[in-house]
Amino acid sequence: MAQDHLQLFIAKMKIPFLLLFFLWEAESHTASRPNIILVMADDLGIGDPGCYGNKTLRTPNIDRLASGGVKLTQHLAASPLCTPSRAAFMTGRYPVRSGMASWSRTGVFLFTASSGGLPTNEITFAKLLKDQGYSTALIGKWHLGMSCHSKTDFCHHPLHHGFNYFYGISLTNLRDCKPGEGSVFTTGFKRLVFIPLQIIGVTLLTFAALNCLGLLRVPLGIFFSLLFLAALILTLFLGFLHYFRPLNCFMMRNYEIIQQPMSYDNLTQRLTVEAAQFIQRNTETPFLLVLSYLHVHTALFSSKDFAGKSKHGVYGDAVEEMDWSVGQILNLLDELRLANDTLIYFTSDQGAHVEEVSSKGEIHGGSNGIYKGGKANNWEGGIRVPGILRWPRVIQAGQKIDEPTSNMDIFPTVAKLAGAPLPEDRIIDGRDLMPLLEGKSQHSDHEFLFHYCNAYLNAVRWHPQNSTSIWKAFFFTPNFNPVGSNGCFATHVCFCFGSYVTHHDPPLLFDISKDPRERNPLTPATEPRFYEILKVIQEAADRHTQTLPEVPNQFSWDNFLWKPWLQLCCPSSGLSCQCDREKQDKRLSR
After folding, report:
1. Percent of residues, the chain, with pLDDT higher than 90
2. Residues that are catalytic
């Protein structure tokens, strides 16, 4: 009898134990498959957010994110330029592996109708997570190409790289997209338009004078030919000025153009609403949201609620508007009770563009703090970017990690959290961040990091195991101009070859752990292991370059130049390529 009572008691106790077990399993499953929000600013300097030391720019929401999670102080972009950095971020691989690094001066796409872009055989973290049942969206800037052979194949489009939903721009924000903000093609105009027109003009005047003086008989055909050539150049120039904005600065929803040219009116608010609506649509399923702001790349813009409110002019207004948007997303997660189950990452694609100065002398670039250089070069100011991660259920709040990490690390980190195996047919250069973030490891998995200037191996960073030293060796450095300045102001960005750089033999060596400003290169007199360190770094560089297969160059002239048959236009807009379905939809919804 007693035995029967005991068995009955055990049977009754099994039920609550099973319930507890299933609850624990459900919580464990949630913790291992969080929602993921990846927020990327454009050209934001590490010295801009308050949590990285800025005392005058107001970024309370980015600071809130940092205080609630982990702040990485040596977080590095895989490239100091938009397109290659974003390719590395999406794939976890150095951009040179996918052909997304240029051998020429221009290292980013400038036309929507170029045929280059992120190759179809590349695997993004969005693709991996979509295969694991995640709902995926990209809101904002893409800048990794659009089509290959026809304007409807969309081979490089976000929806062909793992995203279920896309709302944003396929190219990038440019000064040419906003009337009155100047042009990124000023140098090109000078070389291809103004100088040739001047030469033609001087030639015509010279021939006319010689003809009048009887010193040389110049056939009328030559005069007409030169006049025709001048008219052709002028017509092409005026056509470029008229059509560049609508042909390259437009908003899309999935495959459809919804605003051409794009309007800057409440643009950040529109991106924020789209991001919020995506989150609200996916409260019951795991989701991946990549929120890729247009801020703070020029042309700078902000809504009337932020214009003129900061202490740093139009740049500060843009930063503070972006921070507001981050706050809206954080508040929504709290309202929906998703904050504990959501991993949020905030970063910038590269350092601030220090050469961004308007024609009026206004500073339109951000701050890289104490660090040298900026966008388009591999001094620390060009590649050391904000890196903040928050996941309240898993990551202890208020941490600061000084180990070298990369934006390529997001790929393996989110893949593992989603339960997706990493591709085995390619090298993944990123490393899983979770051991560092959870305190299970105190040392970065990156012993070596390779810093590329476009497709050229520019520098190598070595963080030896069981050492606090972080060695950085430069094979070449950009020639700043004017001499003594902190950038390449004559060319607007620094270039990677020829007379624009100085090669170093032996390489220029720094210990970043002691000299983060890179002011005092080491010598055999100041560092006894000088040649030994350089030998290890050179051997690592050699091993690395041996792993690089020959791949199609996405920035070849054939891929880079504008192709009219790839040009997208609003349906039924004729040759004007202008429409505003955003405004039409808003009217219909009233």
Report:
1. 84
2. 82, 143
